[in-house]
Model the fold of this input.
Amino acid sequence: MTRSFTVALAIARKDLVSEWRTRELVPALAQFVVLALVIANFAFEIDSRSAPAIAPGVLWLALVFAGLVAFGRAFASEREQSTLEAVLLSAASPAAIFAGKALAAALLLVLCEAVLLPALALFFGVPLSFGLVVAILLATVGMAALGCLFAAMVAQMRARELLLPLLTLPLWIPFIVAGGRAVQVAMGASGAMDQALGLLLDFDILFVVLTSLAARFVLDD
Amino acid sequence: MTRYLAAAGAAVALMLAAAAMIFFFAPTDALQGPVQRIFYVHVSAAIAAFASFATVLVGSVIYLWRGSLRADRLARASALVGLVFTTVTLVMGMLWAKPIWGTYWTWDARLTSTLVLWIIYAGYLLVRRLAAPGRQAARFAAVVGIFGFVDVPVVYFSVDWWRTQHPGPVIAADALPPEMLSTFLFTMACTLVLAGVLIAIRYRLETLMDQQPVGSVVPSPASPSVPSHLRGEANS
Done:
């Protein structure tokens, strides 16, 4: 058990170091989310009255598509350099490898969120609260587990860019329903925040357990 | 093949009998009028779809557990049939909703989760097509089949938590008059038979396709491929 944990941390560290050296993904994603806010501003004609109603939707749209790119890249680099086979050939268990990849991708997405949320607050004038940040982080955990599972799958298939959103987005909907509710409440809608957060936590536990069980079948050749 | 033809004929005859019962035996609903007759097919198709997807789940779990090709073929056949019945459910439901609710679509828990169900199993069939044929396609699709089955109740639950307007279960509540209940039960039985026959035929087709070499199904750039219908004639 501790061995798997060490392996997962080593894999995550490898991915983070490689991202730090190349600095490819995070700057591109940060630019992407800011662009998404600019486009939303013109598409919706946002003013101070409409912002609290529209901002949660814009946040989730930007986050979901940034997440798809981040998780897709998690395995794309391994595939491009054919290093996935090498990693799989080592004695490490597929679940540990998968956990490491998901951890690194989730941390990269958190960095991107650290740009998205302040930019949203700045451009749309909506408040940032503790509950909102917790909701986004909780959703990121489950989304990373599911996103990386299917990213690992499509990395071994044809038409992977096409298929990743088709497989991942429907499975993310529970997180978007509960997380979307939490963000709406944080931005002024009426409702119970703790209910939405509890639900997000339940979904996290369910899907983290399921994906770690399924990792063996996706990463095993 | 005659066995399958006979089964298909019987299923069609049963569905026609169900249609006759729906239109001539069941009474007209006092509030909704003739539109209510959609209910019999709509709910039956939904139950057939769920039964098919439950079969996909069972087949997927058995495949991942035992590596049984037969379980995989069953899952493949059921996913396609389940998708067809989900389409019927959605279209019938929308036709009913327009006169009764005044709108074709609303983001209610059942509607949302049925749509998500449809999208997930459409993805399942895409995985089948795009993964390397054989073990990989079977393994990946099995994972999608299992996740899809888990995800749909979760979607239902999370939407239901905040809003829903779909009519509640009327069968369990004993709210149907006996003629309506017997019409519904007969239609449901016929639809389940139809689903079973369709799955059996599809299973047979999948078996035949598995027996052909991969190259005849998916042409590879290396070897000039023989069209599959020509190869089929050469074999028989």
Remarks:
- Chain B has one domain: 2-235.
- Confidence is low (pLDDT under 50) at residues 222-226, 230-236 of chain B.
- Chain B touches chain A at residues 64, 112, 116, 119-120, 122-123, 126-127, 130-132, 136, 139-140, 142-144, 146-148, 150-151, 154-155, 158-159, 161-162 (CB under 8 Å).
